[in-house]
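Backbone shape codes
____________________
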Amino acid sequence: MATNQEFVVCDEAVSALDVSIQVQIITILKDMQEEMGLTYLFISHDFSIVRFISDDVAVMYFGQIV
């Protein structure tokens, strides 16, 4: 975040992590979002994480938003 980004793409950012570490990373991301006014494009297959971090959600199926 050294370059003062406003938009960050998080593609499966926590998918390979232990659940307790996932919570820590997501909490850090949410704190950074509030403090720095960040917007995330958060890509994940885990709906519970998406629900926790997202304000708006789009679901893709075979490359189309459904």
